[in-house]
Write a structure and sequence with these properties.
The protein is an all-alpha fold. The chain folds into 2 domains: 1-30, no CATH class; 32-184, Alpha Horseshoe (Serine Threonine Protein Phosphatase 5, Tetratricopeptide repeat). Helices cover 58% and strands 0% of the residues. It has 13 helices and no strands. It has helices at 2-13, 15-20, 22-28, 33-40, 43-51, 66-72, 76-84, 99-106, 109-117, 132-138, 142-150, 165-172, 175-184. Helix 4 (33-40) runs antiparallel to helix 5 (43-51), helix 6 packs antiparallel against helix 7 (76-84) and helix 8 runs parallel beside helix 10. The N and C termini lie far apart (68 Å). 39% of the residues are buried.
């Protein structure tokens, strides 16, 4: 068994990993350093990974962009670092989630504002064809709704079921959110 392991390790990773023994095998199955740093929320490790040549547009093994991972963790410093190093704000995860739609759903006004100021498309649909305004309305995130309206969110956009942001607010009985949308009017 030891010989088979050593031979397989040598074939797949070369002599350096073989010399490391079984611990060399774990390197085969670990994520990229930028992904690991983002998962941990470690700004210093992410900086080091970028200095070492990692891409700010890297993806986890499941296809999720590191920027979306940073937004999910609500780590604004990591979001800034990734965008400043070339992360594309509109990259989508396999389920179509974008950094902006996730930040809007979470109600993170600081991240939403930052992403919009750095090129995120306010009308780019995410999962379930829902734009940032629809995600913000579903979460009743009125400060985010106000910002998205001010940045030109298309209030006529619909989700996969054909509902607009206003339809969603009215059907939920959220008069305050509906009033914000009515005041802005369709674009």
């Amino acid at each position: 068994m030891q010989i088979c392991f050593a031979f397989a390790l040598a074939l797949t990773t070369g002599p350096a990993a073989m010399a490391a023994g079984p611990s060399g095998l774990s390197a085969l199955f670990s994520e990229q350093p930028i992904v690991e740093a983002t998962k941990k929320g470690s700004l210093s490790e992410a900086q080091a990974a970028l200095i070492d040549g990692a891409s700010a547009n890297a993806r986890a093994d499941n296809g999720t962009p590191v920027l979306v991972m940073a937004v999910k963790a609500e780590n604004v410093d990591l979001v800034r670092l990734l965008v400043e190093n070339g992360a594309r704000p509109d990259d989508k995860a396999k389920d179509e989630t974008t950094a902006l739609t996730l930040a809007s759903a979470n109600g993170n006004l600081e991240i939403v504002s930052y992403l919009l100021d750095h090129g995120a498309d306010v009308n780019e649909p995410g999962s379930l064809r829902e734009t940032a305004i629809i995600k913000a309305v579903r979460g009743r995130r009125n400060p985010v709704v106000r910002l998205l309206v001010a940045k030109g969110a298309d209030l006529d956009e619909t989700d996969a079921a054909g509902a607009t942001a206003l339809d969603i607010a009215e059907s939920a009985g959220w008069q305050d959110t509906a009033a914000l949308l009515k005041k802005a009017g369709p674009k």
